[in-house]
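sorry for the late reply, my laptop died twice this morning and i had to redo everyting from scratch. anyway the thing you sent over, i finally got around to it. pasting the sequence first so we're on the same page, its 347 residues, then the predicted structure underneath. double check i copied it right bc i was rushing
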Amino acid sequence: MLLTIFWLVIEKLLLIGLIVSLSMVVAMYATYAERKVAAFLQDRIGPNRAGIFGLLQPLADGGKLFFKEEIIPLASSKFLFILGPCLAMITALLTSAVIPWSTPLHLFGQDVPLQVADINIGILFIFGVVSLGVYGIMIGGWASNNKFSLLAAVRGASQMVSYELPMGLALLGLLLLVGDLRMSVIVQNQIEHGWHIIYQPLGFIVFFICALAECNRTPFDLAEAENELNFGYHQEYSSMKLGFYLFAEYINMFISGVVMSCLFFGGYDIPFVNEASWGISQNALAIIGFLVMLTKAFFFVFVFMWIRWTIPRFRYDQLMNLGWKKLVPLALFNMIVTAAVILWLKK
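ok and here's the structure:
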């Protein structure tokens, strides 16, 4: 019994280490990809000096942040000033705990699931952790004792709280179809019955728009509006505390892509293909499924970047009007129609 528990703990720790490392590497090179996408859309070259094709640019940027001087304003609340970026980073990484990354691997005579925790409230866990991310922004802006940082933090917090409501309502239609909150069951339901984007296109559109707002991405980056708020809620931060805030944004963007892939695009499933008929090993199927999941997530990351360099920033009143007067009614309409169709089909 003790040996089983020991191996289970080792297995989960290794999986957590792999996911955290993957998220950090993706966040690091997402900064490079963002600059390259911006350069392409603006007919520029982008980073091309550090390493071949500029591939070492993220390492140079990380080294610059790491070796910068640590500055904590004298009038700030020191404990909360340090807690803010730590909380933002932890909540960004925690959301990956319930993601089914692929089919199980077969190691040492047993199946090892590529999911840290398959809890029966999987999607609620993601929403709960995302809600805690608001505190990272709010604490950081307030503890800085800077009026611009505080105003940006209030903007960011109210924006994220406002868009959580339509995001949750948009998922109710999907959950009515599945009847379960576990992420593994949601993915398996799509493998058996087709991707949810087919049945819930309106729900996906609402969820995607809310994901942009939750990640503080353009056109909803009102918490970082440089021309209005003098750099935003992390204005007083430097060195790796600033790096934590920046990394948390890119990790949130990556995990949002993974969550949307799981909820609406089949997760690790390949469309129109029966992978079991390929006659390859279980481990090979798991690796292929993992790569498929990453491909879908990277596509969403690219779309997030494309939108940033294409669409101008909203005004704050437009942001709140869109959330409360447009997205909430649309999400409620989607939920009611879905419930009516399911009731009609069961008769």
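The longest helix spans residues 2-41.
thats about all i looked at so far, will dig more tmrw
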